[in-house]
Structures are given as C-alpha cells and as structure tokens.
Specification:
By secondary structure, the chain is mainly beta. The strands form two sheets. An eight-stranded antiparallel barrel has the order 1-2-3-4-5-6-7-10. It has a two-stranded antiparallel ribbon with strand order 8-9. The protein is elongated and about 65 Å long. The termini are far apart.
C-alpha cells in the first residue's frame, strides 16, 4: 500500500471512529430501504460510467447512520470496449447538523466506508478480456432532503480508491485508428474514481425498541 492510499485509509477510519464515538441512542434502530443511481467519473480513458443499485440504512444514533449498498455500473469506452464494475459495501454517515433528518430541511454529512468490488474490461477488436477482484475505501460528503417524515432524497459525492491489484485501460492511436489497451498489475496502484450517487429512501420503522 502506497503513502497516498495509507493517508486515504487513515482519513476514512478517522471519520468512522469520530462518528461512532459521537453517537446517541435516542434515534437508533431506524431502518431505511432505498434505490440508487450512481455515476462514475475519472474512469478508463476518460469515459464516464453509470449504473443502478440498492441500499439500506440502519441508524445508530442521532447523528450517526450506516449504509449498506450494492451497485452495478457499466462504462462504454469510446465504442472500443466496455467496463463492468460491481460494488458491495458499507459506509458510516456522520451528520454535521445537531438536528438531522428534519422535515423539508437538508441534512449534510460526512461519509466513509469500505467495499468489495469486481471489475471486468473487454476489448471489442480482439475480444481480449481482463478482470480482477479487489477492495476499496471511499469517503466524501453528502446530504439528505426529507420530503416527508418517512421519505428522503439523498445525494453523495465520494472518491473511491482501490486497494487491490491495478486494472485499467487506455487508448493508443495508430494513425487514424484508435486501439484500446488493457493493463493489469499485481501490485496496488493509484486507480480510483469519483462516484456521484442519487438515492430515494423510505423509513420502514425501527428494528429495535428505543432506549
């Protein structure tokens, strides 16, 4: 793990720990179920990806929430190939306002977490395929907007940095012909991407009795 990844991981752990120690039990147990749409920027050859997924939240305290998610993203790499990404992970949300999740108000938060992911890149010209399993840490900012007492719309922006083997592609020009090249390295690299997620969530009630 290089120095940048160590710093990134340290900051993510710091946010998670700060959130856990700041929690209150007054609001714990609330269960939210939602759907999400995610866009991935800064991916292969500058081509953005997009996809859909689902998530649920379990609130741990007044200013602390947890989010458990799964995403499937696709990227068209300038019609020369494609990339598929699957993410399964979790995050901790730490609300910046003292009274979050109020009706008709925004609730900004810091978010950090970890996920496992699978990536596959396919070249159309020569049918070459490379894939890898990896893990990643992500952190960023976001906000909820409570349309009703039970329903919220949420927007998050996170940078995801991969901790496993490096897999990426780039485009080379041979005269007027563009060729998609795939590179796979056994050691971790600096690969990462910016994820922007829009989600719709509904509070289904409490999983356990309030204390």
């Amino acid at each position: 793990m290089n120095q940048l990844q160590k710093t990134f991981l340290f900051l993510a752990i710091f946010i998670v720990n700060s959130a856990v120690f700041a929690q209150s039990k007054n609001e714990s147990g609330q269960f939210f179920l939602g759907v999400r749409s995610t866009s991935s920027l800064f991916t292969d050859a500058g081509s953005p990806g997009s996809g859909i997924g689902g998530q649920f939240r379990i609130r741990m305290g007044k200013r602390v929430n947890t989010e458990w998610f799964a995403d499937y993203l696709t990227t068209n790499i300038q019609n020369l190939g494609y990339r598929r990404d699957g993410h399964i992970g979790w995050s901790v949300l730490f609300y910046l306002s003292k009274e979050p999740l109020q009706l008709k108000k925004i609730s900004p938060f810091l978010i950090a977490g970890h996920c496992f992911d699978y990536t596959k890149v396919y070249v159309l010209a020569d049918k070459k395929t490379e894939d890898r399993w990896s893990s990643a840490v992500q952190m960023g900012i976001g906000t909820h907007y409570n349309v009703t007492e039970k329903f919220d719309i949420s927007l998050t922006t996170q940078y995801m940095n991969h901790l496993g083997a490096d897999l990426h592609s780039h485009i080379e020009k041979n005269g007027d012909v563009k060729e998609l090249k795939i590179e796979k390295h056994g050691s971790a690299g600096l690969e990462g991407h910016l994820l922007i997620t829009l989600s719709l969530n509904y509070n289904l009630g409490n999983l356990w009795r309030k204390k």
